[in-house]
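Feature request disguised as a bug report, sorry. It would help if multi-protein outputs had a clear separator. Right now it looks like this:
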Amino acid sequence: MGALHEGHAALIRQARKLAGRHGAVVVSIFVNPIQFGPKEDFVGYPRPLRNDLAVCRAAGADVVFAPSVDEMYFPDRSVIADEKSLSDALCGRSRPGHFRGVCTVVAKLFLIVQPTHALFGEKDWQQLAIVRRMVRDLDFPIEVAGYPTVREPDGLATSSRNAYLTADERLLAPRIHEALRKAATLKSPEAIVNAAARDISKIPGARIDYVEAVDAGTLEPLSRRNRPGRLAAAVFLGRARLIDNVPLPPTV
C-alpha cells in the first residue's frame, strides 16, 4: 500500500533475482479502501508516491502499477473474494472484513498483472497464508513465495507504521520481538504464549491485541510442537499497531 521501506525493497530485489534477465518485475502501489475498518485512517494513510517510485527504481522494478480507486472499483461493485477459515484467526478477529478486502484487491491485481510469481513478506504471516490458500482454491497459475521479515538492527520489524512511534516508543518497540524470540525457546505452546504475553505486558504503554501460537499453515491453535508453527502477536504502542511473528519449528 505504499510508504515503501527496506522490507519492500528486499521483496523487489528478490523478485528481480527470480525474474532474471528476461522477466519483468511489477510492483503494485494501491491504498486499498475496502480493507480499512470504520475506525482505521484510510484518508490519513501515507502516500509518498515520489519516494516510493525511487525505492522501486533503485531495487530493480520494471513497472509500477499505481491505479486510482476509481480505476480499481466500480461504484456499484457487488462481487468480492472472501476467505472463510484462516481469516477468522489472529488479526481477522479484531479487524472484521479486513481480509475480505485483501483477497478482493489481490485477486484483482493478479488478474490485471498476470504474474507467474508473487512475493509477500513473512511479517504478516496471516496475509501470506490467506493469499496462498486463495491461489490454491481458485487455481491461480501463480507461485506465491514468502520472504523473511526484514528487521532494523535492534530487531524491530520494518513497517510503515513505525513512523507513528514517538522517540520513546521507538526505543521500547524492539522488546516485542525480543519477547517472542525468547518465548519460542520453550517447549509447550501454552508456556510459550504465557511467557511472551507476560514479557510484552511489561513494556510501558503496550496494549496486547493478541499473542498466539498457531499452525503455520492452517492458523489453528497449536497444542503441541509436532508440526511447523508461528508465534504471532499484535501490540498497540501509542498510535501504532505493530505485528510480528517468529517460527516455531517442530520439536517432537
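(second protein starts here, but nothing in the output says so)
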Amino acid sequence: MIKKGIAVIGSTTIDEIIKKDGTLNLKLGGVTTYAGITYSRNGINTHIVTNVAAKDSRILENLYKENIHVHCGFTEFTTHFVNHINGDARNQRIPVIAKSIGCDQINEILDLVDCIHLGPLHPMDIENDALASLIKSRIPIFLDTQGYVRLIKDEIVYRGVMRYLVDALIASQIVKADELELETICQDYEMTLNELMHLFKIEEFVVSRGESGGLVKTIRGDEFNYTSAPIRKYDDSTGAGDVFFAAYNVGRFLKQNDVSDASAYAANLAARQVEGEYIKHTVLDLQHLFEIALY
C-alpha cells in the first residue's frame, strides 16, 4: 500500500532528442520526471531525490507545478543525454553526469514515504553506500534496472551489467527490465529469470517488450502476459517505459488491482506517452531555456 507517499530517486536530465529527419528537441528527462509526474497525477504524495546544477535549476519548474516535492542536492553539472532516435531504435551519449546521489540525501526522506522507486540512469547515479543503506532500511523498493545495464565508455552508452546491480536487486521487491536488459542480466549471471527472482527474493518482475506487450512473473511462479495498447500516432517513445512502470505500481499498490488490470492501465498510459498526449511537450520542453543544443 502507498499511503504516505513515494520517493523517486535518480537523475533529472536535460535530454537532446535528435530524430532521423534531423529534428532536435531539448526536453526534461529522467525517471524522476516521467515516473514522478505519473505518481503525482495519480494522487500520490510524490518526492524526487536528484542532483541538478544551480545554473540549470529552472528545468525543475514544471515538476514543482506538478505538485512534486523536489529534494535537489548540490552538483556542478546536470546529467545530459543525447538520444539519436530512429523509430524504436536509439543510440545514446552521456557527455556529462551529475554528482552521485548520496546516502544522506536518501535518509532525509525515508520517514516521509512508504516506498521508493529507484530510477538510476547510469551506474554511478546513486552511491553504492546509499544502496547498502536502503537494504538495511527494509523500505519497499521498486527498481528499474536500466541504469545498471548501461556501460559508458568515451561518453557512448553500451549494454553491460554493472556490479552495483547486485545491491539494487537485494534491496528491491518489484523489478522492471525491458527484454534486452533482462537477457543481458540473465546471460551475465548465468541464470534464468526464475532463478534470479528466487536468489534475490524478487516478488514481481515486469518485463517490457515495447509494442509486443510484455509479461509479469511472480515469485510464486505465476506468469501473466499483457498486450500493448494501440498507438494512434507515433511521436516519441522517450519516457514511455518509465510511465509504464510507475503506472503499474499505481495499479498494484495504490488501487490494489490484480496484475492484469494494473498492466492494462500501465500499457494505456505508456501508449498515450508515445503519442505525446500524456506528459505533453508543454511540460517537457526546455527549448526556451537553451538557445542551442548543448552537446
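Even a blank line would do. Unrelated, but nice: The chain has a mean pLDDT of 94.
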